[in-house]
């Protein structure tokens, strides 16, 4: 196809539609690919360096420092821009190397960094570097309050959450003036950005640190109510495809049209760049006579997966799930796979000893440097009033009322909250917020918390930066939930400076990384130590399989009631709960249990130990709380000796398929 882009003395001229500037942003995985793509009609490229980015799984698909410098010089000579991804979470050991890398990128004159970890923002500001900052899709920006908070921190562009529809994007753009970048083509995750921890729990390979092993591409079966449903690869989504919707993207105020594909070859990326550039330019030239379908067949014939517009125009449902080509586990047409169904590792004495070995050096450092801390607290997240009352009766210090209540339970009402606050005794009642908060959620919670008589709450469990900004004015104490993904002390300090009294460590932390964090932490840290936490948080609704499709077999669930949907492989069964917002929570098939490591963690200075109690029957939740309450009492009094762990465990028996140490079993 013939493509035209206006040139002035060899320099590309920016695209404009009226007063709206439009950027076509292309991925480049290697310097050789860059040299071809930068000559194509894109306006900017994004790439990764030798470390600190989300594409570390495929060797050779990142740039050396020398190549970054040369790429910037070439791009600038053509009037184009280079954005560098520094978009994974930093461990403590990586902080100093990150400082040096950021200095290098500033000296290389890159046009912006794409970042996830708030530690990177803090480092850039601390060092006074002139580096524009773009919020990565892994920062999961999904509401106006979060955008405003990022503006106040100096962020100049946001890559929107993959689940953001174009009308929401338009509202945020008009209300904030923030530059918005939107994925228009390529591979999309089924889970909300930085809210998939399954790869970490099973393999020790963090999806927030560029090492995801793609358990979403496994061949699961869907099971519910004693029936098995036809579900080939029910978590494997189609490729994003917005070629036919250039007008809607521009109308929504999207300024940067982003193509995914830093691990694609040059010919494929060039095909996409040329096609989308031609469509954009044709629309700018003749918007009324624009032919959406021109050359669409060419893209369809060369697709890697089937196509979807994902969440651009609302929830796509089962139409978003791919059943052919790379969606069936294959890795970029090479015939290899990321991984095959793998069981969660069992907790055993040998593994516990190994984890203690991983932790010992860092824990000794923490013990030697930390001043005496208050006694550790026990928190319990509950799903209903019966669980909440049980948690209070068993002596939980902090009771978290879930903001994402698993059905068939109903959300906590004002009357429920007031009743619990009146009966709390020495315990604290903390109101949890939804993990993903829409504009409607903000309006509802602001009315509940500040619109009438003040609730006698002891605090809020906040889930995103927008919630921190919106509710700080109400003067409730705030605790940071696990979705804040705190992986290093700089990020913890950032949230401490925002007014949080403590933060929850990232659930993806390995033993060594946790030890390093505890050794350096200045803000009190909470850890999830028991339960079946959400390891994949999705807008995608798996329950639709059971509502829209006919069953193909019969089989009861092994560990949870039949009315709970289960994703099943030959390696295990993962329960999936639907919450009151319609979102799905995929849980571990086993229970996380760190009871044997309590002495080590208390000694290291963990401030609060959390039980994720939502899926438990009340009697089982009582047993778990009793065991951890006893552990805290024994270890606080230095009474733990031979046989103490067995005494603490008592009648503790797994409710699910056994116990695991989760991500902590990896170094």
TrEMBL record:
Q: Output the Pfam families linked to this UniProt entry.
A: Peptidase_U32 (PF01136)
Matching entries from PANTHER family are given as: 23S RRNA 5-HYDROXYCYTIDINE C2501 SYNTHASE (PTHR30217:SF10), PEPTIDASE U32 FAMILY (PTHR30217)
This protein is called U32 family peptidase
């Amino acid at each position: 196809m013939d493509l035209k882009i206006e040139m002035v003395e060899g320099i590309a001229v920016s695209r404009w539609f009226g007063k709206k500037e439009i950027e076509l942003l292309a991925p480049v995985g290697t310097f050789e690919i860059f040299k071809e793509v930068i000559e194509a009609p894109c306006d900017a490229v994004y790439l990764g360096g030798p470390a600190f980015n989300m594409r570390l799984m495929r060797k050779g698909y990142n740039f050396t420092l020398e190549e970054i410098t040369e790429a910037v010089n070439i791009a600038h000579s053509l009037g184009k821009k280079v954005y560098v991804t520094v978009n994974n979470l930093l461990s403590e050991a990586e902080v100093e190397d990150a400082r040096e890398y950021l200095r290098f990128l500033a000296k290389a004159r890159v046009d912006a960094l794409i970042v996830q970890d708030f530690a990177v923002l803090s480092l850039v500001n601390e060092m006074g570097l002139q580096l524009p900052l773009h919020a990565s899709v892994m920062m999961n920006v999904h509401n106006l309050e979060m955008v405003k908070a990022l503006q106040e921190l100096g962020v100049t562009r946001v890559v929107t959450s993959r689940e953001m529809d174009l009308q929401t994007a338009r509202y945020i753009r008009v209300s904030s003036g923030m530059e918005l970048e939107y994925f228009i083509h390529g591979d999309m995750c089924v889970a909300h950005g930085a809210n998939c921890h399954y790869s970490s729990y099973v393999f020790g390979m963090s999806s927030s640190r560029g090492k995801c092993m793609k358990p979403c591409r496994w061949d699961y079966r869907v099971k519910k109510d004693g029936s098995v449903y036809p579900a080939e690869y029910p978590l494997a989504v189609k490729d994003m495809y917005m070629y036919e919707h250039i007008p809607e993207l521009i109308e929504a105020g999207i300024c940067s049209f982003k193509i995914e594909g830093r691990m694609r070859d040059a010919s494929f990326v060039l095909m996409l760049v040329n096609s989308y550039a031609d469509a954009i330019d044709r629309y700018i030239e003749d918007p009324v006579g624009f032919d959406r379908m021109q050359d669409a067949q060419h893209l369809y014939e060369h697709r890697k997966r089937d196509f979807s517009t994902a969440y651009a125009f609302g929830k796509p449902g089962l139409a978003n799930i791919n059943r052919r080509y790379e969606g069936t586990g294959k890795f970029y047409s090479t015939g290899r796979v990321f991984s095959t169904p793998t069981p969660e590792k069992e907790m055993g004495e040998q593994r516990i000893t190994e984890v203690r070995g991983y932790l010992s050096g860092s824990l000794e450092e923490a013990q030697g440097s930390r001043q005496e801390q208050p006694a550790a607290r026990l928190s319990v997240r509950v799903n209903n009033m019966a669980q909440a009352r049980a948690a209070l009766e068993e002596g939980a210090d902090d009771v978290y009322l879930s903001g994402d209540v698993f059905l068939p339970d109903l959300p906590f009402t004002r009357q429920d909250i007031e009743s619990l606050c009146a009966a709390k005794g020495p315990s604290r009642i903390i109101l949890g917020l939804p993990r993903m908060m829409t504009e409607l959620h903000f309006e509802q919670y602001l009315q509940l918390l500040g619109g009438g008589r003040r609730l006698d709450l002891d605090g809020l469990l906040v889930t995103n930066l927008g919630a921190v900004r919106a509710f700080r004015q109400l003067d409730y104490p705030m605790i940071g939930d696990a979705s804040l993904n705190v992986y290093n002390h700089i990020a913890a300090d950032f949230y401490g400076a925002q007014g949080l009294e403590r933060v929850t460590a990232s659930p993806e932390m390995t033993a060594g990384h946790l030890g390093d964090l505890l050794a350096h932490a200045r803000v009190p840290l909470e850890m999830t130590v028991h339960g079946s936490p959400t390891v994949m948080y999705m807008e995608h609704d798996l329950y639709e399989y059971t509502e829209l499709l006919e069953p193909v077999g019969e089989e009861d669930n092994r560990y949870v009631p039949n009315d709970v949907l289960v994703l099943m492989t030959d390696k295990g069964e993962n329960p999936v709960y639907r919450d009151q917002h319609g979102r799905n929570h995929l849980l571990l098939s086993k229970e996380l249990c760190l009871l044997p490591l309590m002495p080590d963690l208390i000694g290291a200075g963990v401030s609060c130990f959390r039980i994720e109690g939502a899926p438990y029957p009340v009697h089982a939740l009582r047993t778990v709380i009793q065991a951890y309450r006893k552990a805290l009492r024994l270890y606080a009094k230095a009474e733990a000796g031979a046989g103490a762990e067995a005494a603490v465990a008592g009648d503790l028996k797994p409710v699910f398929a056994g116990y695991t140490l989760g991500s902590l079993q990896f170094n």
